[in-house]
Amino acid sequence: MPSNIGSPGTSRKECPVTALAPYACQPADSRGRLHDESLSTFRSPWQRDRDRIIHSSAFRRLKHKTQVFVEHDGEGYRGDYFRTRLTHTIEVAQVARTIAGALGLNTDLAETVALAHDLGHPPFGHTGEDALAALMAPYGGFDHNAQALRIVTRLERHYADFDGLNLTWESLEGIAKHNGPIVGTSPTGGPITGPLPYALADVNALWDLELHTNASAEAQVAAVADDVAYNHHDLHDGLRAGLFTEADLAELPVIGPAFAEVDRRYPDLDPTRRRYEALRRVFGVMVEDVIAVAQNRLAGLQPQSADDIRAMDGPIIRFSKPLYQNIKAIKSFLFQRMYRAPSVVVERTHVTQMLNDLFPLYLDHPDRLPDQWRAAAVALNDPTERARLVLDYVAGMTDRYAIAEHQRLFHDAP
Questions:
Q1: Integer Cα distance of 168 and 176 in angstroms
Q2: Assuming Cys at both sites, which of 100, 177, 307, 326 could form a disulfide with 107, CB separation 3.0 to 4.6 Å?
Q3: Beta partners for 33?
Q4: Confidence band for 192, pLDDT divided at 50, 70 and 90
């Protein structure tokens, strides 16, 4: 059974605690870890979780995983400037700490969930996720949030006493539910249907994550910070890639006025500075809106505990309705001009084919897997269990490793 944090004789005064709002997650009230551990002398539970995530193998691999553009995209040095899944994650964590701090929330927990939220992404971003979801349809499907839980509870194998990272309940809850309840009723009031992703079901069977409730306010902050970060940096990356121009953005809400304000204040500013000045204003509008909306709602609802936040009808952390509509217009523009740009669509086709080649090959010929995976795969007679093991291997690949393996197995062979 899950244990409380700490062990007999370990004083909770060892955990550094700053003044937090009553509705924040309090370190002393954490529900603990599945495997009992003594308290850290210098770190709170979520500082410890954060550090374990940063030191994990899965976190390091984010360096070479796609955000939008595959790693080798771009001409010459230009590709080095595009966001990767790692730089995106760092930006999300920075935004999460800012918002959480302004609201009196636990910044360490918000940062932890932000740092972990994309650990389960496969190579090639959402294109890779779509491909693996189709390939895994007969075996329970694939979902990157559920895969992140599988990584932090099973696949990271560095500690002597347990598999995974042995994160606290609150961190696992945040990874599972930062986008809202998983079962029961959705935040918009509609029913949530369909079976749970098997990776999520496995963790929830081991330790009830209360999937019918909202996540903590800190986890909700991480989810909104994800939206803020990618809406901001995808504009940067799309401009750098030449998929659209500043003139194309002039009619968009929030963005057009931001460029106009820069032009008023800084006439004849050079193009690079103009771009950064305008887009940082867009960034500021989103962050300030989230904080203002949350402050107003918290003042009106007066939650007195983290569980009060979990029991609410919907999320406490969100954009205002007018800004949400504006962001929908920006997302629609990015979808058409960036995510479905002809050059990006061509690349999506190529990388989908790579995964469509690699996954069945490993499934039918587990002897092609590396040594540390081969014996386990060969020993599995159940096709579903073997498929899930192969998935763990393929989903853990970086873009460049998947490309290299595909080249080796399908082009270099006699």
A1: 13
A2: 100
A3: 168
A4: low
